[in-house]
Amino acid sequence: MKYIKNAKIILKDRIVEGKALAYSDKIEAITCECAIPEGAEVIDAKGAYVAPGFIDIHIHGYLGEDASDGSAEGIRKMAEGIAKNGVTSWLPTTMTVSKAELEKAFEVISSLMEESKTWNGATILGVNAEGPYINPKKKGAQAEEHILKPEASFFKKYASLIKIATLAPETDENLSCIRELARDTDILLSMGHTDATYEQAIEAIQNGVKHVTHLFNAQTALQHRNPGVVGAALSTDVTAELICDTFHIHKGLFSLVAAAKGDKLVLITDCTRGGGMPDGEYTLGGQKIYVKGIECKLEDGTIAGSVLKMNDAVYNVLNNTTLSVPQVVAAASLAPAKAIGVDKTKGSIEVGKDADLIIADENFRIKKTIIGGEIRYEA
């Protein structure tokens, strides 16, 4: 048994102080510090936060690598890099590239899932397939030549691997692909890169869509006579992703979205291979992207993903809202865990759940990342 003492332990609804967290590969107990046996392995948190590890369910790249490359070494490098940002598990996220490239990426990621349980980085939980079934009108930084009409059979072939799939419902004739995937798979169906009207979005939700990809970005806006996809997302119980880098979304909207979505708000990074790298030129889905500070754009100025770190997203929301620390941490841990159906084992500090933990200061700079009870990163 191992222990963390002298910590502010972030639970789902409160912060506990003056207790010790006991863990093995699972969380064993929250107990009195006086109960720590002599000679036990103890981490002194020195008053820092202990929180559930973050779960990034939408991340394309990091440290010069990209999930769509189909590189095992690249995935390993990303996993190790994002663990330094407090991410303990993740969904490598593919883009609208050719089917052959998608199949290669899926197969490589699938082959690494078992290894990822013990490697020196964040654990792979599956894949997020963002595209290729999107609307060219809202393609954003996705490559138009690889956009396809929705087809359930391709995703069904990888149904045990794909945890989230983004589609544009208005391009799905009679919503047949959405209905088939909702009926036959456990894939979380998400609306994104879509020109759907409010009415089309609501119909899609009624037929199996339960999630919205990077709310506000690459979708129909909220207008008082045309509520659009944003209006549908805010007025129903779908989960909604938010890129809280203060560039994709104005910080003044964080509170409004949080008030509308409650525990259905999911923080994501949507990070590209430019994340963790110096300013400069990189690629995304075969297209050149330019990173400058927190901005990531195509040559024509189109926003192209982000360079956001998950711990910075948490800090940005805390710094720009009146939400409590447990509420914001849950948006980066428990909410994504629930969205993809892994909340029985991950997403919060509860007895019996995996010992995926972070120790962080008041600004959520990461001091230690613990995955499956083992220290995988130490500042």
Key descriptive features of the protein:
379 residues; alpha/beta; Urease, subunit C, domain 1; TIM Barrel; 2 domains; 9-stranded parallel sheet; 6-stranded mixed sheet; 10 helices; 24 strands
Q: What is the number of beta strands?
A: 24
In the residues, how many domains can be counted? 2
Secondary structure tally, helices: 10
The CATH architecture of the largest domain comes to: Alpha-Beta Barrel
Query: Tell me about the biggest sheet?
Result: 9 strands, parallel
Low-confidence stretches: none
Oligomer state of the chains in this structure = single chain
Report the structural category.
alpha/beta
Strand content: 25-35%
- Mean pLDDT figure: 97
C-alpha geometry: globular
Query: Quick one: CATH class of the largest domain?
Result: Alpha Beta
Q: Would you identify the CATH H-level superfamily of the largest domain?
A: Metal-dependent hydrolases
- Rounded to an integer in angstroms, the radius of gyration calculated over CA atoms is 20 Å
* Distance between the ends: 23 Å
CATH topology of the largest domain: TIM Barrel
Helix content: 10-25%
